[in-house]
Amino acid sequence: MSEAGALLAADAEAAGLSWPSAPWPRGGGFEERLAENPFIMAPMAGVSDRAWRLMARAGGAATAYSEMVSVAGLHYASDKTWELVIPDGEEPEIAIQLFGSDPALFEEAASKVASRLGHRLAFLDVNMACPVAKVARKGEGVALMDDPRRADAIVRACRRGVAKAGLGTPVTAKIRLGRTPERPVGVSFARALEDAGAAAIAVHGRFGSQGYAGRSSDEAIAEVARAVDVPVLASGDALSADRCVGLLRASGAKGVLVARGSYGNPWIFSDARALLQGEAPRERAPELRLRALELHLRLLDATGGHILKARQIACHYLKGLPGAAQARRRIMRCEELDEFLELIGDARREVGRREAVR
């Protein structure tokens, strides 16, 4: 058992989490795989590393995506790029999201990733949604929504790539409603991707020009879901368990991608599933949240993550807890795991002190 596995086996239950995680089903179609658990951890650049994925899986996510992976980086055999692809030994499987604009590089990347991960590759996703300017200006991410022929060619290229590896790995795509509100192409674009062989389509209910501002449109996602026969995964503002279930029902989607809602809240997946089944989610006491924070930071260290990521992670978990403002100021001076753990210990004592005087 790896260090990460030992940590999870020892500490997950005390943090209100569950380990080992149920694997993503291998049999059946994509919709069948979502039937039992439709809540998936979304890809997040700079966020969804091995430790974050392990916490999400322990929190009940059906499966989890990698960060965005550059097909050009894989072409040049960048070690840094491959680090984003290779799952931790404790992860049952992983969904890999690729980005780029050259169909030939997508085919090569799909073949390499499928060959290296084998059956640990849940599905291969193409990013056609990222609104970041440095991505879009290269014709990548959401810019592909202005070029449906290229998008079609990329999906077909990925399917050829996984076939070369001898696998029937599903190929999916993540899109928005269009690049700008002046060109609402979500429905026609999704139909084109379905024709190209996409096994599922994730739809973020905003236009690229919106970034993450304003409200995500459930109805616009529903229009796409009604227009295609393949499963749609709804994305956008899934910030609470209530919202996850509401988004699933309002959009008619078969699954929901959870991104920012998992910040400091790995339980959002199991809570959403409980609500979907008519059960009330459990309250999470401050002590339990602090135990989860400690586990997350220990996993970050055990999986080779950069320890300074712990500053932002800790801020998410500490939000709303007694003494959080003072703790956040201390966090920004922490540089070693032991310093973070000392801070958590002090936070526990502060919580205990306040509980004692109630």
What report would you give on this structure?
- With 358 residues, this protein is α/β, with parallel strands linked by helices.
- The chain folds into 2 domains: 17-276, Aldolase class I (TIM Barrel); 286-356, Non-ribosomal Peptide Synthetase Peptidyl Carrier Protein, Chain A.
- It is 47% helix and 11% strand.
- It has 16 helices and 8 strands.
- The chain has an 8-stranded parallel beta sheet with strand order 1-8-7-6-5-4-3-2.
- Helix 11 links the parallel strand 7 (232-235) and strand 8 (255-258).
- Helix 1 (3-11) packs antiparallel against helix 13, helix 8 runs parallel beside helix 9 (186-196) and helix 13 (286-302) packs antiparallel against helix 16 (337-356).
- The longest helix is centred in the last third of the chain and has 20 residues, at 337-356.
- The chain starts with a helix and ends with a helix.
- The model has no long low-confidence stretch (mean pLDDT 95).
In a few lines, what is going on in this structure?
The protein is an alpha/beta fold and 358 residues long. Helix content is 47%, strand content 11%.
Please supply descriptive tags for the structure shown above:
2 domains; 8 strands; TIM Barrel; Non-ribosomal Peptide Synthetase Peptidyl Carrier Protein, Chain A; 16 helices; alpha/beta; globular; 358 residues
